[in-house]
Fold these 2 entries.
Entry 1:
Amino acid sequence: MRIGFIGLGNMGAPMAANLARAGHELVAFDALAAALAPLAALGARAAGSVGTLAAEELGMIITMLPASPEVRAVYLGEDGVLASVRPGVILVDASTIDPHTAREVAAAAAARGNPMLDAPVSGGTGGAKAGTLTFMVGGEAAALELARPVLAAMGRNIVHCGGPGTGQVAKIANNLLLGISMIGVAEAMSLGTSLGIDPAVLASVINTSSGRCWSSDSYNPWPGVVPGAPASRDYAGGFAADLMLKDLGLACDAARRARQPVLLGALAQQIYQQFSARGFGRLDFSAVIKSYRSDRPDDA
Amino acid sequence: MRIGFIGLGNMGAPMAANLARAGHELVAFDALAAALAPLAALGARAAGSVGTLAAEELGMIITMLPASPEVRAVYLGEDGVLASVRPGVILVDASTIDPHTAREVAAAAAARGNPMLDAPVSGGTGGAKAGTLTFMVGGEAAALELARPVLAAMGRNIVHCGGPGTGQVAKIANNLLLGISMIGVAEAMSLGTSLGIDPAVLASVINTSSGRCWSSDSYNPWPGVVPGAPASRDYAGGFAADLMLKDLGLACDAARRARQPVLLGALAQQIYQQFSARGFGRLDFSAVIKSYRSDRPDDA
Amino acid sequence: MRIGFIGLGNMGAPMAANLARAGHELVAFDALAAALAPLAALGARAAGSVGTLAAEELGMIITMLPASPEVRAVYLGEDGVLASVRPGVILVDASTIDPHTAREVAAAAAARGNPMLDAPVSGGTGGAKAGTLTFMVGGEAAALELARPVLAAMGRNIVHCGGPGTGQVAKIANNLLLGISMIGVAEAMSLGTSLGIDPAVLASVINTSSGRCWSSDSYNPWPGVVPGAPASRDYAGGFAADLMLKDLGLACDAARRARQPVLLGALAQQIYQQFSARGFGRLDFSAVIKSYRSDRPDDA
Amino acid sequence: MRIGFIGLGNMGAPMAANLARAGHELVAFDALAAALAPLAALGARAAGSVGTLAAEELGMIITMLPASPEVRAVYLGEDGVLASVRPGVILVDASTIDPHTAREVAAAAAARGNPMLDAPVSGGTGGAKAGTLTFMVGGEAAALELARPVLAAMGRNIVHCGGPGTGQVAKIANNLLLGISMIGVAEAMSLGTSLGIDPAVLASVINTSSGRCWSSDSYNPWPGVVPGAPASRDYAGGFAADLMLKDLGLACDAARRARQPVLLGALAQQIYQQFSARGFGRLDFSAVIKSYRSDRPDDA
């Protein structure tokens, strides 16, 4: 299938490369022209603008953009996708944005005769390169079945979450919980070690008890407890604290719009914000444990 | 081995019964004389007081008491265990109390020539009856090896956590995390469904993603998501919200003493307190999701 | 001076009426035509659109709008103020919006040759009717001096806060503190009375001690403590909880943009959100004390 | 009147000195014998123990002790006040402790025939020296009237709060609100200045608006805003953050016992705890604003 791909950042570039390697014919666009070179080497063709890309004869257009305003501009702008795309082309937005915007854009696409899927991913840049992402997909089941073979070239799990926007809902609900759990683990590990238990022993107790969670058993924030985790390499790589801050912001905004309280979620966001304000926003989000293991010069 | 057992409440009674069934000779005491009858039917002998029990020729004394003041009274009181127990008898306190008190009592026992283990349990009354409890044990490894065959008649997992008090530390650190995670799941499930995703779909996404945790995959607070969980039977049985409130209180108190911040933990405690103040303290703690799924008469 | 006035809602209508009564020649516009009738009775002329109003020969244009999107549309829209206004006309936006938008609009106005002031108010509909509002004003001092006699017809205190946007900054910082203080008073009054002190006695102690604040001495949330306060008339009138929720939202959003933590502020917002979700959003914000004085059927 | 005085710490010593200067005949005791010398120079006599002091012919005994355990020991201990005091002697405890203990001790005193008042103070060491303390008094009005002339030698305001324990209730409710308000002011000032307003201008707006409070107008945490406040002398002197932490601990404990939620209060306590854990516990509590004005090396 000939596929248009818009947005070749840290995530988009390796995803598009996997599509090219899987034999798909690609037409690509990025606001940064230089981003197209590596993809051209894999046989992809560059488009001069969103509009010219959208006007081509394509089976599908995939977008991978930083945030809601970019998604809005790329789809609804004057020279945007919906202004030029042919009816029937399937539109897949893999960006992580608020569900409200996702639904608004999907409705505009439907009105134009284009089925649209919101398909945010988890798995990070590692998963993007390895082609092992998880796609959380909102939209019509029929459209997803058509898109599935294409998505399968980029990810391992493709989960249908329901109608338009529910892919975004699943992503932000999961990350709300993740952001809370990680701080929960940071507090439990810090309290336990303050009180004299060995951190590896505490983690092993928790991991076989009711406190068990991904943030403890697969991504423990205490250095050395999980050898492969960012905590064991000075919190380099992984999922930046500033990205967690962005996702918790999406969750809190969506909650406000729905008048749904999220007390722990809002406090968790503030704790990452305090952490980011201290200059640590580029570290992996598990480094938030630094807010709990401070030196104590004044302690008797 | 002849064993003294003090404290035959909801947890202690089935634990002692399992010991009797395993062929141990039991001498038992409870402030409530009626609590002894079922155990007598299994061959146990009743002692008239803590002091007379402690004065007997025993290999081990096990206590299962409600809170720190009772533990202090039973061990350190005028007619308490330490006033009469013979040197060398192993003391095992299975109560959940603060680590500070556990260490103080263990030090007093050591001074008297009695090795002492703090051995709080998880698994609830179900685990106590089935003999499948987990023991989190603090104290000398040698004493634990002597106690292990006895504990094995009451529980399935026996984890050595380190020196005196670390069993309590492991328990309260795990439950701190559990209390936070459960509210995290409640917020994520409530936000997701408010935004239009099906709760079972959302749970299945979370359970295979980074939000995965025991509170979501084994004990989900949304009715019907996990068939056997308390949420699927109107939050009856399980682990009462008031007990979670007690354990979070122990965690916050220990944190204060150690000058260790636990921001989410303290807020979680308040959320259970608010829930308990509304009259729901006897429901399973997963019912805290009721604080998030309110009716909204004023909503347009 | 001939003045254009846009936005005749609960606040704008009485403000415009005071201008008319003070002898100013008014040209007014509101999206709701019916809103113009009472003003016409005071001699004001109706304009057919924002654009036709802006094109008139005026000394000043005042706007009083619900939120940022409306301000953006009225000033920057195709038929907006800046498209037609003559250079030199002073623009005064009395809406409460985010400082970022205020600065963006002020910069666009300056580029067109129009001095602009952001001038959000406090004092509520009571102050609007009585002409006793406080204006917190951001922008050039010279423009404020020209506007001052006009603002004085609507308000009693006119405070210059600094350059463009600082009027909004002062408003949201004050209301952030107000939202927190009110909950603080609610917690202190609820805790004190739970512990057996008379609420009037407690309030009088606080009001002469270090807990003293406007939320306690002038607007106490406990019924009967301050006779004229909303608490003493079933929380009718006053400043709606949903408006406090909006203002705390502005504060949290501005804080996020500035990467400035506001831990208590974010939690306070959630507490009003929880309160609003229960259907109480139209009550005065001091009614949030209801979240703390629940009935306790299960209490022994 | 001949008066016994127990506890000559930072607060007790100047209070007792004011009594001596007012012509009262004093018998004093402190566990630290050296503490008695300055008082002896004013004519006071030293007692050898609590018991011998209590056995003397006295009109009143006043105690000023660090916390509940000391109060319990001094009144209820084997050699304590109640073991030796003559019936009818009025007992006044000026310590700040939990209301529960205050009531327990008062009940024991009443059973012995001794009217007892809980009379915690505000005003700090400055107020103690100047004799300008505020006494918040719980207990019988008749006993307070007898005590009033004596208290008047140490303080300026003497407020009757109700029955036994209500003096403590008033103190902890006020300080709960104070601890919250100070952080509220810290957040509002930090947010405002982050967004570009001058701190002195912001404070002056707040102080004439609905955010007005003692923490802003008399004790502003921003350096230079209130010349005499601790913020203007590097947060030296004043009311130590660790003492605020202690008082918020009393409030949270009392709330837990009463099953009364205090969400902002519990979070405020954690914020002071985090601050104290960084080694700042001896600074004035207004220094908590340092948690909000961090350097931001990573900020672009």
Entry 2:
Amino acid sequence: MQKFETLLEEFCEFLNNENLNFEPKELYKPISYTLDLGGKRIRPVMALLCCNFFGGDYKEAMNTAMGIEIFHNFTLLHDDIMDDAPIRRGKETVYKKWDSNIAILSGDTMFALAYQYITKTKIEHLKKTLEIFNKTAIEVCEGQQFDMNYETEENVSIEDYTKMIKLKTAVFLGASLKIGAIIGGASQKDVDNIYYFGEYLGMAFQLQDDFLDVFGDEEKFGKKTGGDIISNKKTYLYLKAFELAKGNDLETLKKHFIPNHSDNNKKVEKIKEAYLKLGVDKHSEEEINEYYQQAMAYLDKIECRKNNKSELKSLAGRLIRRDY
Amino acid sequence: MQKFETLLEEFCEFLNNENLNFEPKELYKPISYTLDLGGKRIRPVMALLCCNFFGGDYKEAMNTAMGIEIFHNFTLLHDDIMDDAPIRRGKETVYKKWDSNIAILSGDTMFALAYQYITKTKIEHLKKTLEIFNKTAIEVCEGQQFDMNYETEENVSIEDYTKMIKLKTAVFLGASLKIGAIIGGASQKDVDNIYYFGEYLGMAFQLQDDFLDVFGDEEKFGKKTGGDIISNKKTYLYLKAFELAKGNDLETLKKHFIPNHSDNNKKVEKIKEAYLKLGVDKHSEEEINEYYQQAMAYLDKIECRKNNKSELKSLAGRLIRRDY
């Protein structure tokens, strides 16, 4: 079975060889810029890996994988406008470097380009591939809307948050694997199993990302920690803390989770202290582990024996890094 | 053969019966609002009419037609953000009534919904339908970008303008007819003929729209005239006038085509006078007529004899109203 690294290399080569330098350049430059920013290319390579795992020729999934990656980058491009985010992967976001109108329109074009690649899927798999892709695209939009809603809503529950990250992040990981499985010729049962494997893995991944944003080693995590605390983001940690806190602890949370705190370093320090005191870190790790185990249970259910599952397992392990 | 009015009624009934009231309501309310604003539903009904014309069952094209209409409304929704347009069809635009983020995201969702409907196209026509739909979606974005570019570019030629309206408006009319023809089982030759019929008709339609924005009867045209003059829009009329004008006439154009004119009524009056003096109105009518004749020539080329062409001809005539 092909290794993740080999497929990653092949995918990157495919992507780099595609010509997207069309006219008007004001539209296509931001698209190339966005795709050249890099990123882990997890989703397209997952699709290729899955196609290969179920006995298919991964080269036949290359265009579809490209569609998946372009769609993912389109969502980031539009999210950055909505979230007012100036930096992505260490570089200026499109709406900052150019303007909002350019970001809206080049995003729209990427969405259409994604479908142009997806349409190259072999005819016998085309309808099924589109059905899951369309459904997921809609869910990702719904997830982003819930995320925006929660910024101003008072009463967000852990259940609400879970639903939001499922829609915004997890289903797309599941869908990428599922599309690879469809093209690889997997049985309907295995197509479903791999989808849930991906979805639960996606949940664990997002919760882990939230955890690392507070407790991660900045060097290993690759970005500054504390961002979610500073922006009062209602993550699992935030919501769990408010669920558990009473008396003085509750006062501490209320005192520091305010807009425009006068001392952000102190805010992060105090909230981290409160989280540790309340055991929110332990709860979060348990939650991550539970989703991870559920993902593994779906991987175990897969009946296909054409390849062993070690590559998918090691990928899952790498996604949910254990070295924080 | 089915009449346009019958198909329009059936399409509206189909659209009204579709349930798009999902959660989160912040995302779906603007979508229903946009689709409920009305509009002429020209493109979806053209698709149905064309399917029927070539001997297909138009009911089989209903979901695809719905996808076409949702896509069209998505482009309007995003264009209104980019163009800062507060009013559409007599009502507040989505970004004005809600905000830009809601407008971006509900637009994205409509794009995905459009593909969800298109994917319901009968499997034997799916790939061809998607290929033309994807291509057109990209071209419409390119057209909008050229349109935005021309707002600030100094040297826009009539050729540039023609290319822009072709991409932004004409190809989508051609594509709607073409998709109907594909589902209706037309020959490849006729699929191409009907596409160019629609494209040339679309060109005539857009040039006519520009003409009526200056010289139209406000009651018949259904909106206030002079808008393009006030906003210094580089239409065919504007560009032709600058091409022809010399001496005093050129001075008049330069004097009044300025940003923030102190007296817009006077501006419109003076520019109209200059247009008439330069014969720009006649040039424009000739241009419209030429595109119209080219459209008719492609209609004549159509070999299919299952139905007569009177309904398509009368539709073309109605689109390019002769009663201004």
